[in-house]
Amino acid sequence: MMDKQNAIEVKDMSKSFKIQHDTAKGLKEKLLFWNRGTVEYHEVLKHISLNIKKGETVALIGTNGSGKSTLLKLMTKIYYPTSGTLETNGKLTSLLELGAGFHTEFTGRENIYFNASIFGLTRADIDKRIDEIIEFSELGDFINSPVRTYSSGMFMRLAFSVAINVDADILLIDEILAVGDQHFQDKCYAKLEELKKEGKTIVIVTHSLDVVKEMCTRAIWIYNGELKMDGEPSLVVDAYLKQIAEDHKNKSKKVSKDIELKADLFIDEPDQYEVVDSTQDSLLLRGWCVTNDDESVLKVSLDGKEVEEIERHPRGDVYAVYYEMYDGMLNADILGWKKNVMMSNLEKGIHKVVVSCWCEDGRCLASKEQTFTIE
Prior knowledge:
The chain is of the alpha/beta class. It folds into two domains: 55-239, Rossmann fold (3-Layer(aba) Sandwich), CATH 3.40.50.300; 263-374, Sandwich (Immunoglobulin-like), CATH 2.60.40.10. 28% of the residues lie in helices and 34% in strands. The chain has a six-stranded mixed sheet, with helices on both faces. It has a five-stranded mixed sheet with strand order 11-18-17-13-14, with no helix packed on it. Helix 3 packs across helix 4 (123-137). The longest helix is centred in the middle third of the chain and has 22 residues, at 233-254. It starts with 5 loop residues before the first strand and ends with a strand. The mean pLDDT is 87. One of its GO terms (cellular component) is membrane. GO terms for molecular function: ABC-type transporter activity; ATP binding; ATP hydrolysis activity.
């Protein structure tokens, strides 16, 4: 019997996927010997056991391919365990893959009725809430357009607005919030805080470690398909980052010295052509840089003068995107950079920020510049 205090119970659960290797050399062989070929099983999750109590806000963290999204899909019953058990207690709603559960030819309004009915709401229930759903989504007149015309951010707005209005006891969220603009992300997290206070159970997969530490009451770290650590968010995040750094060092040692060095970088703030208010106390310069060169040097200049004492910090979101592209050779602790510049040192007018990444032999691996105006 499931403990009434728990929203989710997982007992010694494993999940494997079958991989079929086709040995046919042509269409004829495919048709004649369709059932031949080798089969192997890839174990994604290994003997996971955990309980999530009602009212907890839990983050699932881990690198790409660790199994955290698979665990979330098992909770939604999209997948079923290969062995072990997983039980849920209460009405459940989920925000997983972008556009899942939406009919692309229907309008946003029609999809509200379609999607909310899947979660068990009657038409009368939806009629009472539809204005609130549309208002929260901020889609305006686009609510009457087919969702195939929507951007990824608009999809997310609609999906989130429906999900928070179906009176679910358990809300499961994958990395979908990452596609929204900052304003709507902040609005979503504020709403999640409200749901926390109402005693809802929230399980979220995210690469934003700030969200994990600030919003969640507990963090679960999945590493190579196993439950590596479960506990207080800041402690779990610190251990996770240390492991990433250790894995990075070990992988770097195995790589040949003649590997092609490369880098990517970006300036988050100030935006290109942004107009900055001169009355504010300081100007934040902020961005990120990824490179496979451990000896590289990051340089930031403002109006041709090098900016000193740049602060480097972890960026889990950037690491998640570039980890595979750089074969895991990224130092997760220093992907982000930032510096506050006193506004009193800057005059009104046009200014230019240049960020560059340099390797030891003096080559520039990547460079980015943006202009902004102080008024």
